[in-house]
Specification:
Elements lengths: L1 H5 L2 H8 L4 H14 L1 H9 L4 H30 L12 H18 L5 H23 L3 H21 L1 H37 L4 H12 L3 H6 L7 E3 L5 E3 L5 H34 L1 H16 L7 H12 L14
Antiparallel strand pairs: 1-2
Helix pairs in contact: 3-14, 4-14, 5-6, 5-7, 5-14, 6-7, 6-8, 6-13, 8-9, 8-13, 10-12, 12-13, 13-14
């Protein structure tokens, strides 16, 4: 229903409103990314394809992380604003960092040998690489969730194997402060400074501006401004733009109350799938929850292909159903 609605009503409203075709296309393509599970779940959900998809998405996340680090370095050399480094906002980067961290933590709870210890070290290092762009661009939501994720993992570990996990925690803490002590303090200082300067980045004011834009008429309230619609965003100094920093406010602006309700039903279905994953794949479920929540409520990276791939993983690794044979037990 959401797909059919999105490919008809907002297109008609946008066309009648005389919106630029380029802006309309820029809205339709992310909308199709958002519905990627509808197209690919059946195709990727047989035999070992979920595991291959998971590995491929992690590979993409690592490549994007390396690219983002390179862009930040170039920006510092040529005095380009770091905010232009959009690769760092890719949800696959945060997911990759979290999942690699969680996998390493899970492995540390089992008896260790030389091979497993090396594996844990490699996964930990790759996780740090994936977290680096978030730190360099001072992404408070991503870093905050990474800390929460680590705390949850530690709590789970202490509950299941307290003595073993306590030793691992102490070892990791000592290594972090010996090798990354000064950079960690700089990151904390940067987070405090950004919070003092920008606060919540005017997210509430942005939502209020969207509400004012669509409540000017009953049709606008029900169907929004259509694909390609714009509004005066207080988050960018009152400039008229065609995007918001939240999936929900963007859907409300472009498709109105009806589109928002259909999106809510779709997201609720995905949340139910992810909730079922918590019991048998908690590391993966929690690694997916962070990027999804951040893009739904806080970041504009919900318009990327990455976001659709993260949603696809939810449907691929949820509770198996008839006709979809899943093999992973991570």
């Amino acid at each position: 229903m959401l797909l059919l609605f999105g490919l008809t009503v907002p297109l008609i409203v946008g066309a009648l409103g005389g919106h630029a075709s380029a802006l309309m296309i820029r809205d339709v393509i992310p909308f199709l990314f958002f519905l990627l599970p509808l197209f690919l779940t059946r195709l990727c959900g047989v035999e070992k394809r979920p595991d291959i998809t998971l590995i491929a998405i992690q590979g993409a996340g690592l490549m994007f992380a390396v690219r983002a680090i390179w862009e930040v370095r170039q920006a510092s050399l040529f005095l380009v604003p770091v905010e232009l480094t959009y690769f760092a906002n890719a949800p696959t980067i945060l997911f990759t960092a979290l999942f690699l961290m969680g996998t390493a933590a899970l492995m540390s709870m089992a008896p260790l040998n030389r091979a497993s210890f090396l594996h844990i070290v490699v996964l930990g290092c790759l996780s740090v690489v994936a977290l680096t762009p978030l730190a360099l661009t001072v992404q408070r939501a991503g870093l905050g969730y990474a800390v929460l994720y680590a705390a949850i993992l530690m709590g789970m570990g202490l509950w299941c194997a307290p003595y073993r996990v306590l030793g691992v925690i102490l070892t990791i803490t000592i290594l972090l402060f010996l090798t990354l002590g000064d950079p960690l303090l700089e990151i904390v200082s940067s987070l405090r400074e950004k919070t003092a300067l920008v606060g919540m980045n005017m997210r509430r004011e942005e939502l209020a501006a969207v509400w004012n834009e669509i409540t000017g008429s009953p049709l606008g309230f029900l169907f929004g401004t259509g694909w390609g619609g714009t509004f005066e965003s207080p988050a960018v100094g009152g400039v008229r733009v065609n995007y918001t920093h939240s999936l929900l406010s963007s859907i409300l602006l472009k498709t109105g109350l009806i589109g928002l309700l259909l999106t809510g039903v779709y997201l609720w279905g995905l949340a139910r799938e992810g909730g079922g994953m918590i019991l048998h794949r908690p590391v993966l479920a929690l690694a997916l929850a962070g990027p999804v929540a951040i893009d739904v409520f806080l970041y504009a990276s919900f318009k990327s292909l990455d976001f659709g791939l993260i949603l696809l993983l939810i449907t691929l690794f949820s509770v198996p159903r008839p006709g979809v044979a899943l093999t992973s037990r991570v």
